[in-house]
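Fold these two proteins, one after the other.
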Amino acid sequence: SCFGYPLSIFFIIINEFCERFSYYGMRAVLVLYFKYFLQWDDNLSTAIYHTFVALCYLTPILGAIIADSWLGKFLTIVCLSVVYTIGQGVMAVSSINDLTDDNRDGSPDNLYLHIGLSMTGLILIALGTGGIKPCVSAFGGDQFGDDQEKQRSRFFSIFYLSINAGSLLSTIITPILRAQECGIHSKQRCYPLAFGVPAALMAVSLVVFVAGSKMYKKALPQGNIMIQVSKCIGFAIKNRFRHRSKEFPKREHWLDWASEKYDKRLIAQTKMVLKVLFLYIPLPMFWALFDQQGSRWTLQATTMDGNFGSIQIQPDQMQTVNPILIIIMVPVVDAVIYPLIKKCKINFTPLRKITVGMFLASLAFVAAALVQVQIDKTIPVFPAAEESQIKIINLGTDGATVQFLPQLQSVNVTSKESTGYMTFKTSELKLLHITSGNTTTIKPVNLPGEDRHTLEIKPNAASIFADLLLDGVTSKPEEGNNLVRFINNLPDDINVTMGDTSFGTLMPLSVSNYSLFSGGRTDNITVIRNLISCSVISKSLGYGSAYTIVINECTAQNLSIIYSEDIPPNTVHMAWQIPQYFILTCAEVVFSVTGLEFSYSQAPSNMKAVLQAGWLLTVAVGNIIVLIVAGASKLSEQWAEYVLFAALLLAVCVIFAIMAYFYTYVDPNEVEAQLDEEEKKQAKKAQEAYENQAEAVSRM
């Protein structure tokens, strides 16, 4: 022992920290992996993400049955941890871009192989993490003797702290790893590293757990109470169906039909459990909203500005707000909020706390919808199927007037300036009439539609140069990246480099292709003209923008450039997500913590595992609800989907409040004490009857 604690628990705590780091680290980047690596849209990414989470919360029931009925907790943890580690390794391998990038263009050539490996890895992870979930904490509790209640209680506090520490660190670190660039043939977001580190931590977790093997107390499997309860319920239903005729007298409760096979104590305990499980029915709707932090809210963050001064926050790092606030809010609520409510003589019962938690979660999604409305205002309008958009860049020293004929619009463009994009029906636009001073040029147009174009013009005394360029960009750059291209407004050929990206040689008045740059950074722009090198540091291009940079002058130590904004950067700051995270964390504190406390207070001592399984099942069903609602709603606007989820939870909140109003609290200890008393009386009567019978026999 060490400080009165069994040495074995230190192996268990380290094991849990590494496992939670592995799980939450992988999960933090999962939805972005689906979207940007597997190239799925937002809806499919969200659907698969929540399917995975649901599976992770369904498998604990399987793990508990295996541990209690066959293998025992130790072997169950070891075997399923091996499965878990293999799953994490498969996920890391599935994200290696170079695995199928035969043409070395930066994109995998066989996405189906990557998808197949990813799904295999996720299924193995779900079996592993779910299967060991009900075993590890209980196995830790088994290490203490009956005289170590104080140490056991403190162990569970440290155990819970290790869970939160692993979750917090992993959601900070793995998004940073993902943001790095790595690869053999081409540099891409480093998903292999983001998944590889959690895989390594899971391997460490397994090794540490096995290393303490000789120190553990290993209880033999004693049968699973969930199986007994299920059999009792099943027999009662079957027996009631057999005796449905009116000739059989009714019984006080339908579970009493199990009395022919099961003892009175098990039936009474099962009644108490079912009473609580009935209250669980509305609870999955809360988890349907709560678990969207890792899907919809993360995707929302990709369209926002993550610049926090000297720190650049990745979209998937915003999830860290929740564990940080949990660490702060739990003691504040327990030590300050609840005592204040009690002083105000408000009877804030556990079921009322749960109701308030559901209401707050609904409010958090209203806040998310308001943020989404502001984001939508910053997203540019792109051309529809029969539309084209044109912007004008004047590269000359004189102003010009461009008329879109026949008689659609007329625009004046001053020297070295550009306009925004203008939308036209492709069937209506036929000619461009460009005038500068006494010089005129007419340019026929026949645009294909559903695309953007840039008209570059350069008037001079003799003529007007005009060229209509196809932009080929009809959506904002994703993941906060920026697109940059260059126009050479010099009379000589130039070679342009920005950061590590070379744009090659540009002839006079020619334009480069767009190149992708990570958001929020500044890069050195270098231009070589006639063996003379000139450079300048670019301005910060923000996040999610596209720019055309015009090279106007290049002399020794002097580079003159002009920025033309093609797509504006994200302007809604990620900090605006903090209120919705704060409200949802407050909801979690009063809902989740109270829910577990209430469940334990209302359940018999040997039925805690049944309610734990039921609680985890509500999380799984909640994630399934996301799939159903998101798939059936067919809403085109994301803010509307947030409002829909908020409204559904509010409706469920009202239903739960009504159910809670009619709920009668019970004391399981009193019920079990009454059962003990009845059993003693029955035993006493049986003893007296036996003695009387023995006395009668002796007289004979």
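Now the second one:
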Amino acid sequence: CSKLLSDTTVIQFYPSKFVLITDILDTFGKLVYERILSMCVDNRVSLPDNFSPESVNDTAKETCLNWFFKIASIRELIPRFYVEAAILKCNKFLSKTGISECLPRLTSMIRGIGDPLVAVYARAYLCRVGMEVAPQLKESLNKNFFDFLLTFKQIHGDTVQNQLVVQCVEIPLYLTLYSPAIDWILQCIAYRAPEVLLTEMMERCKKLGNNALLLNSVMSAFRAEFIAARSMDFIGMIKECDESGFPKHLLFRSLGLNLALADPPENDRLQILNEAWKVITKLKNPQDYINCAEVWVEYTCRHFTKREVNTVLADVIKHMTPDRAFEDAYPQLQSIIQKVITYIHDFSLLFSVEKFLPFLDMFQKENVRVEVCKCIMESFIKHQQEPTKDPVILNALLHICKTMHDSVNALTLEDEKRMLAALINGFIKMVSFGRDFEQQLSFYVEARSMFCNLEPVLVQLIHSVNQLAMETRKVMRGNHSRKTAAFVRACVAFCFITIPSLSSIFTRLNLYLHSGQVALANQCLSQADAFFKAAVSLVPEVPKMISVDGKMRPSDAFLLEFLCNFFSTLLVVPDHPEQGVLFLVRGLLNVIQDYTWEDNSDDKVRIYTNVLHLLSAMAQEAYIYHVDKVDSNDNLYGGDSKFLAEINKLCETVIAQILDHLKTLGKEETLKRQSQLALSFFNTIIAHGDLRNNKLNQLSVNLWNLAQKHGFADTKTMVKTLEYIKRQSKQPEMSHFTDLALRLPLQSRT
């Protein structure tokens, strides 16, 4: 394999061939070393890592010497050099100074290789092996590099030139083949090297007439701080370089990469930019130009104001617009935007950069354009601390968000939609016009028209408008003037016409309820009724199964949760003068009655139990909570006997429904459910019923017995429940609980 490294008949393949073959050589060297190391194991005790040659046994030494003698008998120079370099580490078995003696000899051997490309890769391999086995022997590495410098003029000799003519390879392409090897050699030398050595390297390069290839490798290999501190020196050397062969723009690109990592002296910064940009702006090839400009944009953003950034962006637009050159440079243009928003976090400053939005117009491929918009929005959400009303920011970001929104189509993935919606919502939350609530509402109306295809954005807008209505109430301390009352009604109307456009049924239900609560708090009673009626009429449309996080789940639990929340709101909603007593509660009960529940579900009974809690609360003289400045039914009816009679009628109807359901659970397989529901209903009566009523008292005893009848009741729960009743009986006006406790037997499990 190593013989192949003398063959340069396909010269462009040489660096790849070098990597493949040295990989085989490394494996070979490792296997030989491990084989000899295994021979040193004495009484099953292996050698320590820092062993000395004295602790190596004779057999291992003999084998090791045998390897070196075999290699020495290889006639050709290149295979002999590579194979010996591959097992260089094995010298540790023979003597302490073995490696330090071999390295200079191998370095000198390379002088016998005539082809400069083959020689430079041989030096790179020796440097790599040397750094691995003896990093302290840096002198040999330095000597290796200086040898290379001495033979560098061979590159322009007749032999090489003739070979290039035969293979039809141009000099610039040929020179780039040297870069990986020289870069590696210089990186090995520069590793933890003192400043003095690096300065000496620079001087050597100058003596060679500032060879561009070497200069490029020096800038790639040396520490960024070292290069940045001497930026003006390097610019001087670049200017003096011979233009033929290695292009100057690549040198400026390498310099720019260093200046992105380390800062040059402050006084030189503007001059450095001017010198570099003079060369970059003259580049005719758009690809060469953008590769350079991309690197120097970061330097400009890092050290200068928006004026310089604007000039650079204008120059990029000027170079990349002719013949639509930007279409082949989207990654670099994206990188430029990324760098600009990394350094400019003040968005009013960013959008006042005149050429920033025209620069965005170059992204005409939709998916790339959307990616760029996402980057800008992510930066805005991350860095914008205070809410804004700056018209420059709002107009620019609305345009960017509109671009993202308009990219959504039937094929867009749900994750992508969710991500875009989150970014747009982040922007909406950051917009605030302070006390100018009308302007704020106008913004939300405009946003609704622009982002109608993304449901999470519409949901956010409804929440934002509800919040706006509540802020208005807070400012007015609940006492609306004619103007604020009209404004709040406008907010309520916004929500009422937006909610039906949503597809998720539970989102609609919850928003109707939430918006109804907001309308009620702002004394918009007829509007609140409209929301609650809409919610009641929507309940029959709830499907049996709904999609939750991509999986189909039964909807019963979600419906139960919503209805419980709804009941707690209905307590404070006053009756409409033209609709009859408890019209909303009756309407909701009819809907629940007609809804088709799962056969094995007890949710209907659980809902009816919660209705009893509500009706019990409604029968009190004063309700347990109120909405400020809204008269609930306790004030409207003042405990009127007809009103209480209506509540009692409803209670009887609901209790009858619950008892009918308990009867249907009399089969053997449903007895456990019957027991649990009976006890739950019993607890409801104890907590909310008036047990001085004989019928109710008898019903509670029957339910207690039913819960225990078939042995499914939990004895601990029953005992605790009975103890609670006995404790309650000691309270004033609760003496009737004493009689009840005597009528509640505890059945044994037998």
